[in-house]
Amino acid sequence: MDYIRGVIFLILLLFTSSCSKTDRKEPFRVIDVVGSVGSEKIINLSEIAEFVEYIPLETTLNSLFLGAGNGGIFYEGNNIFVKNKLELLVFDNKGKFIRKISRTGRGPGEYLSLGVHIPSGGNVIYIHNIDKHLEYDREGNFISERSFRDVGNIQAFTAINKIGENLYAIEPFDCKDNAVILVDSSLVTVGRVTMPSNFINNSKTLSNGMPGSVAQWRGTFYNYNDSLRITWFYDDYVVSIGNNSTGPDTLYRFEYGPYRLSPGKDDPRRITGDLIRLHSYINESRRFLFMQFQMGSLAKNPRVMYPVGKYGQDRTFSVNINSAYYDKSTGSFVFMEQPRVGQFGFNEDFHGGPAVWPLYISSDNYMISLVNITELRHHVAENKVSEELRALAATLSDQDNPVVIKVKLK
Are 282 and 266 in contact (CB under 8 A)? Predict the structure, then answer.
């Protein structure tokens, strides 16, 4: 009976009247977050991976960049792509700089903002501007563009995601009740994804209760193969939109138990107290989900970090955030302890390198991360590492581009 009530609640929550069917192939999976509270532990990279490779990215006047976060680095078709302001830098799988893609402007094939998605295989590059979606080939040659300015009388979008050949998922900048509008290639609206009631209720405590003005609290959208995944920081569900979808299909529910935020009661910005919420983006591989959670007062050992660029100094700060991963093959969920001060993620036990946490998961199942040279050199000086990694660090200077950490996942 509880399961039936849960399914009915989801249908009412996630669909508008124009998207009334669920198209679920199987019930969603429950991720037991609450069952792992207080059991954080250090996890070796070898438990989820087959090998790790360090790739220095060639440093030239045209390829120099400082760093890239989630959504800023991609690995597809044996190429590494890095967002650098309004440019896209392209390297081969050994780190050699190939080209720069830069098309800023207001004309055809040009953009004023740079949102990037690279579909499986890396043969095409999608870029979304404030109101249009552009396509380029892997060499950076312009293919086509499509304007969405007239969709729903909306003038600006947070993101435009192409799914398959004939579906676009559009995230309005001023979302109001609609998190996503689904349109086909003829710009006909075929479905919508409504904001979950938890988000709407929680947002009443933020920015005078205007959901559209608190985009930083919305949650995370990410691509997995040829589908778009959506979750919210103040909700319990992960949903998916695939090619030819008219609405979302629920995949996962986070079970927070007594530590779940109560809409209208708990301030969603709280970082203390016995509350758990999703903290940042999700990355998904064939077997794993990688996540971080704000743990409030439930963190057994708060994460201890150095200020940016201050590795190894006495000054540190702590945050009640835990990394975590979910194994889709076994159904197990694990909260992770940081391997050492100043780092978080998986303990790199192949070469003794710095801890690894994903910034991107490729379609061929590689975890991609970055480490800047200052941090890498400090780590090598202070820890027992392989001779291979020590020799690599000796060839680098603090002015060089960051090093890509490429991990083959199980």
Answer: no
5 has pLDDT over 50: no
Non-local (6+) Cβ contacts of 174 within 8 A are: 154, 156, 212, 213
- State how beta strands 237-241 and 227-232 pair: antiparallel
Q: 188-234: per-residue pLDDT in tens?
A: 888 888 777 665 555 555 544 444 444 445 567 899 988 999 987 77
Among 233, 238, 246, residue whose Cα is nearest residue 169: 246
* Single-letter amino acid, residue 50: E
Q: Is the pTM of this model over 0.85?
A: yes
The pLDDT value given to residue 203: 56
Yes or no: say if 175 and 139 are a contact pair by the CB < 8 Å rule.
Answer: no
Model pLDDT, residue 44: 98
Distance, CA of 372 to CA of 353 (rounded, Å): 12
Instruction: Return the sign of the alpha-carbon dihedral for residues 347, 293, 171, 229.
Output: positive
Tokens 């409504």 -> residue: 194
**CA–CA distance, 410 with 408 (Å, rounded to integer):** 7
At 355, list the tokens. 């801890």
Contact 357, 343 (CB under 8 A): no
Pair of tokens at residue 186 = 């003829």
DSSP annotation of 47 reads: G
Question: Helix (H, G, I), strand (E, B), or coil: what is residue 263?
Answer: coil
Could you report the per-residue pLDDT of 11-41, keeping only the tens digit for each?
Answer: 333 333 333 333 444 479 999 999 999 999 9
DSSP 27: P
Strand partners, 243: none
Handedness of CA 319, 316, 214, 66 (dihedral sign): negative
Long-range contacts of 263-268 (CB under 8 A, 24+ apart): 263/197, 263/198, 263/201, 263/202, 263/234, 264/201, 264/202, 264/204, 266/202, 267/205, 268/202, 268/203, 268/205, 268/206, 268/217, 268/233, 268/234
Across 317-339, b (16+ Cβ under 10 Å) vs e yields: eeebbbbbbbebeeeebbbbbbb
Of 367, 297, 263, 377, give the one whose Cα is nearest residue 325: 367
pLDDT at 83 over 90: yes
